[in-house]
Amino acid sequence: MLKISAGMPQGYTAASPEELAERIGAAKAALGDRLLILGHHYQMDEVMRWADVRGDSFGLSRQAADRGDADLIVFCGVHFMAESADILTGPDQRVILPDLAAGCQMADMADIDQVEAAWDQLGQVVDLERLVPITYMNSTAAIKAFVGRHGGAVCTSSNARAVLSWAIEGAEPRGDKVLFFPDQHLGRNTAVDMGYSLDEMEVWDPFAPSGGLKSEAIAAARFLLWKGHCSVHQRFNVSQIESFRAAHPDGLVIVHPECSHEVVLQADASGSTDAIIRFVDAAAPGTAIGIGTEVHLVKRLADEHPDLEIICLDPEVCPCATMARIDAPHLCWVLEEAVAGRIRNQITVDASTAEWAKVALERMLSIT
Ligand code: 13P
Ligand code: SF4
Predict the structure, then answer these.
(1) Within 10 A of 233 (CB to CB), how many other CB atoms are there?
(2) Could you tell me if 338 and 35 are in contact, meaning their C-beta atoms sit under 8 angstroms apart?
(3) pLDDT tens across 249-289, in order?
(4) CA 254 to CA 44: how far, in whole Å?
(5) The whole model's pTM is what?
(6) Ligand 1 centroid to 254 CA: how many Å?
(7) Residues of CATH 3.40.50.10800 domain(s) within the chain?
(8) Superfamily of domain covering 107-231
(9) pLDDT (tens digit, 9 = 90+) per residue, 27-75?
(10) Measured in angstroms, how far is the CA atom of residue 126 from the centroid of ligand 2?
């Protein structure tokens, strides 16, 4: 993967919010239909107000794949999302990530060398032809390419069940075992939702010899879950839900499936960021809703629904620090540079990685 970057001049951070808004509006108007701004639901309001399309990672990847008319896609999200957009768009379309430091800690927890090593080790115990690698969208393009090469697919939190079912169920399953990375929680929560028991899952620790597992455990497991997590969603716990329920006996709880299994079990519902929005939209006036996901989305939902009582389950409210790197100064900078004919912070996935990563992404799009 090639990153093209240059530093943002200091003047952008010194500009007032009003000035930035005026300049972003002018640059957006100047670029017209050539420009598509995609905004993930965790973005701050100062950025989200400019998004042409808002969505979860699945919805935004579909938008990127479907909008061949826009030659400039500014992705207000994190690095793996912009990489996926680059893979799914045509050669004449350019994808820009306003701040290249907007990564994802969870995506970094599955390194391609570790994954290749794990695959080799697993091959000493199981038939690799029957082992289906599935990667969460929150992974690097190199991991997606690995999955594509080995007959697997990408999934997101909104279609993980359909993708896992495609992998090991139905009339013509791809195999009978899944290696799922990088988020053990999404893998576990989805497999339980499909009816599998916790006894059928093992956690693969990439830092331990043989993943920290005995051969018999590897052979018996239906799901091998990579030991990765999201530190934002790991903060939610059962006692927060108990406190919410004590204060709001009729309240409802919804959490993102990156939360631990114990938390998901105690919630009334779990789902992707889009699913959380739909749940809130459908609630009766006066309902108290405790939400376990990133705070910028929770805050926006509270602002948009004054008739509901929307509460973040985590009283310390930890934002996703990397999502928050995309701010109005960076958005203004990349747009004004584009108006001047200079493309800043373009995300480009090299052709051989993109070829196989696209196979894995397109499998996902055709399954769901
Ligand atoms: P969604 O696919 O639900 O938008 O989630 C992406 C993400 O990074 C959650 O932490
Ligand atoms: Fe990654 Fe977690 Fe941030 Fe989502 S919330 S982008 S998984 S660090």
Answers:
(1) 24
(2) yes
(3) 999 999 999 999 999 999 999 999 999 999 999 999 999 99
(4) 21
(5) 0.94
(6) 14
(7) 11-103+322-349, 107-231, 233-312
(8) NadA-like (3.40.50.10800)
(9) 999 999 999 999 999 999 999 999 999 999 888 988 888 888 899 999 9
(10) 32
